[in-house]
Amino acid sequence: MSASGRAASRTAVLVCQGRAAADGTTAAGRFTDPVAVRLLRAAERVPVDEVRAGSVPQGWQARVAYESVRACAEVVVPRTIAIDEALRTHSTGQLVILGAGLDTRAWRLPGLAGTDVWEVDHPASQQDKRARLADAVPLLRGPGEDAADSVEAAAVARSLRFTPVDFAVDDLGAALAAAGHDPSAPTTWLWEGVVPYLTRDEVRATVAALAARTAPGSTLVVNYQAPSPRATAGRRLARLLGSSVTSGEPWRSLWKPPRMAALLASYGLEVVSDDDLLTLAHALGGPVERRSSLRSGRVAVAESRRG
Ligand SMILES: C[S@@+](CC[C@H](N)C(=O)[O-])C[C@H]1O[C@@H](n2cnc3c(N)ncnc32)[C@H](O)[C@@H]1O
To answer: Ligand 1 atom 20: the closest Cα is on which residue?
Structure first.
């Protein structure tokens, strides 16, 4: 629990469990995240191992945890592939990950070797991640590499800075300035799995703050949820069935693609692609079960047009 009284994000753990469950078992050759499992506590690994083995547990609670991880894995695979690809094609010297949660890119994407990374997150979630990372340091380097002596040194990114920010109350721009982000150089902004948890006003304020530090040649990669009665009902059902993960983190804003595009355009960011995860999942082949969650989840790429 942080000083603000808010606990570390549990949905961040669920997404990490989904990536750990999918690593090496789903979309082989396109998706991999060997770092995710290293950030999980022992109890959190149990449903991950069950999903990987396809062994459905007995008991209500264990079954709910299993289904949550399985469902999450199906959604995060196309989402991660799409985002990693966007980061490759829009790489700059600066990557700011907004609402980073247990994101592993700074430790797993070799393409970030020439990039300075800022991980921005709610203070409670960031504190939790840093504790997990500290425990995982000896495991963060690949086979044959010397163990790193710090979380930052273990990263493949050129540099890594943790920047605690509560989007609801803190000044994102001031926090990034204090952490050494250069607004005159291009930045790649990544905002994955966070927009639904913010109010419309908080989303607007965050876009305004990042746009103020966006030089020409910058890109925003944003994952958001479009309105979907079925996906919203699915979350409600999961809560009723006893999943406590989503109960403390309700969805606060869903965006139709034209409204998201209009918001970004009003801050000089032009959407150049905006795909739903269902289309991306179909393109990967393999079975697709979570149609409504996949159809309403989207990844948009917007480029800075201000010169
Ligand atoms: C579902 S997790 C996604 C984490 C990560 N981006 C990923 O996709 O794995 C949601 C993240 O949003 C962050 N978040 C939610 N509300 C926030 C706020 N008001 N300020 C800062 N971060 C917030 C949480 O701390 C959490 O890390």
So the answer is: 166
